[in-house]
Design a protein that fits this description.
Elements lengths: L8 H15 L4 E12 L5 E8 L6 E9 L1 H15 L8 E11 L3 E9 L1 H21 L17 E6 L4 H11 L8 E6 L7 H14 L6 E5 L5 H4 L5 H8 L5 E4 L8 H5 L2 E3 L2 H94 L2 H6 L4 E4 L2 E2 L11 E5 L4 E5 L8
Parallel strand pairs: 3-5, 6-7, 6-8, 8-9, 9-10
Antiparallel strand pairs: 1-2, 1-4, 2-3, 4-5, 11-12, 11-13, 13-14
Helix pairs in contact: 2-3, 4-9, 5-7
């Protein structure tokens, strides 16, 4: 084609197509990540692929790809049998494809095969990378360092409400043969698919906000394919478990290896019913320990009582003898004190009687009769003794008393003595 030659867009597109086919003949093995994936009703699979210059880096390339129905059925079946998981967005795959160019739809890849072993290795590498990161951060065993309550009675459960595994867990726990009582609270969560990580983390956060209300957490789901269970290799779920304030038990129904969530959990068990059985056995062990302690305390108490019985009897005899001696001494002391009190009381009484007699004699000598007998007189007015002239007025009638007589007088003059 000459530089000055005019062509239509369709002609230019065909030139581009032909040049691509000439430059890129045959198949190419391409490493890419599935950004989007859709399988239509006819069975054809349409992919949106992205590429990065460095693993996990910024997307630097993008292309459409197609796996036609007949080939997709085979590729998908082989991929799942080898890896244990289904093709899904977010996976890095190694694909075999030819370059296709269409005048209307542009560049695309026509996929002929996908190397399942590459993706299986890639998934394993991602899992190992998560484990190495948790170890490097020093958090991988943090939840295992917590102490489980001797009787873990209040259990927060993260599971899907309608899951059979959840029902089995409740039956085994509440219908245990020992009559132990447990209180369970369900935090409903998505347990498979792309929403698993967000849903489980939200449940963990809700429980952490009310951590004082629970003794432990059970993260459970029934069995499933490797694909279903691979969501629990998430770094975010594992990190939240390591930082969780309560012991967390997992029963995620694994058939083979543990997930990363199992590795960081306080205790990993195979199934939801195994978690229930573990809680019952822990409670039974606590009850047995308490019964054993009670028996040992009773035996020790009996031994102490038996060993000290003779000593107690000796002390009783000694105390009784000492008490009799003390009583005898106190009785003698009391008798002596009583005699002393009687003598002191008699002496005091005699002295008091003598003093009383002398005072009575003195009072008798000072009586009015004796005073008048000694030549003194006593003046009264209206029957009352006059002690001062100031009590009298002119014209008052007064009576003067002598030893054997009395005289009535009228006051004619009452002058105070200067």
């Amino acid at each position: 084609m000459k530089e000055t030659e005019k062509v239509t867009l369709s002609e230019l597109q065909r030139v581009i197509r032909d040049k691509l086919y000439e430059a890129l003949p045959g198949f190419y093995w391409v490493i890419a990540e599935i950004a989007e994936m859709k399988v239509n009703s006819s069975g054809h699979c349409y992919l949106e692929l992205t590429g990065c210059d460095t693993p996990g880096g910024r997307v630097t390339s993008r292309a459409r790809a197609t796996v036609w129905a007949a080939r997709f059925r085979t590729i998908n079946a082989v991929f799942e049998s080898v890896t244990g998981i289904k093709l899904a967005p977010g996976m890095t795959i190694l694909l075999k494809a030819t370059v296709d160019y269409h005048e209307l739809y542009g560049l695309s890849l026509n996929i002929a095969d996908i190397d399942a072993s590459y993706t299986a290795g890639e998934q394993a590498l991602k899992r190992e990378a998560v484990i190495r990161r948790l170890k490097h951060e020093g958090v991988i065993s943090m939840n295992q360092e917590l102490s489980l309550a001797p009787y873990p009675r209040k259990i927060a459960v993260i599971s899907s409400r309608g899951a059979a595994g959840y029902d089995d867990f409740l039956k085994h726990l509440h219908n245990n043969g020992y009559g132990f009582v447990f209180v369970t609270t369900l935090f409903d969560a998505v347990m498979q698919g792309e929403s698993t990580e967000r849903s489980v983390i939200e449940a963990l956060n809700r429980i952490a906000d009310a951590a004082n209300d629970y003794d432990a957490v059970a993260l459970i789901r029934g069995g499933g394919s490797v694909t279903d269970l691979s969501w629990f290799d998430s770094y975010e779920i594992a990190f939240h478990i390591t930082q969780f304030p309560l012991p967390l038990l997992t029963g995620i129904g694994h058939q083979k290896d543990f997930s990363v969530a199992d590795i960081v959990a306080w205790r990993a068990l195979k199934t939801p019913t195994a978690v229930a059985d573990f809680l019952v056995s822990e409670t039974l062990e606590a009850e047995s320990h308490v019964n054993d302690l009670a028996s040992r305390i009773a035996s020790a108490a009996t031994e102490i009582m038996d060993g000290n019985e003779e000593h107690l009897q000796s002390m009783q005899s000694h105390i009784a003898g000492s008490a009799r001696l003390v009583v005898r001494v106190k009785r003698e002391s009391l008798g002596y004190s009583t005699g002393m009190l009687e003598r002191i009381a008699g002496d005091t009484l005699r002295k008091s009687l003598g003093l009383t007699d002398r005072m009575a004699e003195t009072l008798r000598h000072l009586g009015p009769e004796n005073v008048l007998r000694r030549g003194f007189t006593m003046t009264t007015k209206a029957g009352k003794i006059v002690r001062s002239a100031s009590e009298l007025s002119e014209g008052d009638e007064i009576m003067t008393h002598f030893e054997n007589s009395r005289t009535i007088s009228i006051v004619s003059d009452n002058k105070k003595q200067k």
